Amino acid sequence: MCQAVADALCQYQSIRFITVRNKKLVAIYYLIQFLVLCYVVGYTIIADKGYQAEDDVNGSTSVKIKGSGAIGKGASLQPLDSMDLVVPSNELNAFFITTAITTTPNQTQTTCNGDEDAPLCTHADTSNCTETYFSPNAQGIYTGDCGSNGRCELFTWCPVEDDTVMDVVQNVGNFTVFVKIDVSFDKFGVKRTNTYDYNGDGKPEYGLNLFTINEMLQEATDGQVTDYTDIAETGAIILVASNW
Q1: Per-residue pLDDT tens digits for 38-68
Q2: How many CB atoms are located within 10 Å of the residue 101 CB?
Q3: What order do you get walking across the sheet with 108-113 strand by strand?
């Protein structure tokens, strides 16, 4: 036992180096070293940013819209503001604003001719008007009779809505959108927002957290749409992304 311990303590190991004078092997050796270096520096450090610690971002976006608009002209002018046009008034990470309205004045609950969504019929053949009592395609309840226009008669709010005639809401393009973004990187205890008071006046700043509807449309379409009236009747969906 003592002899084994003494033998273990009274010896050491050394590395033996050899010199290779084969040009082909030397070229392969340095090529492999170069490729490993390129991978470490080029991909791991530069491309993949392996020297940086990362964390998923958590946050929320809230929007507040202000502005005044109207539909109609002259005596029929009807003023509208953001409370009338933004539905719902508060929505997390999104907003909906009305740009065109279909108005059907003087409606009363009675019977009237169905529109183009109602089935065709004749006074001699009303079978299409009795196939179903309720229909998701109709604006009311079928009475079982045929209307004077060759469409099934409805019990509903008459006259029925004509969605081919729309009133474009005036001045929506100048409505301002205040976008407040709050994010946090929990791993590092860091919080960020886009509502810093850079000007010292406590007001939102255009281009940072305050935009008009027309500006948002222009930026989202690379200048193809410069005014909301171009999409007022068809509508549009804009996706906004914030990078931190």
Answers
A1: 988 888 777 777 667 778 888 888 888 999 9
A2: 16
A3: 108-113, 152-158, 141-146
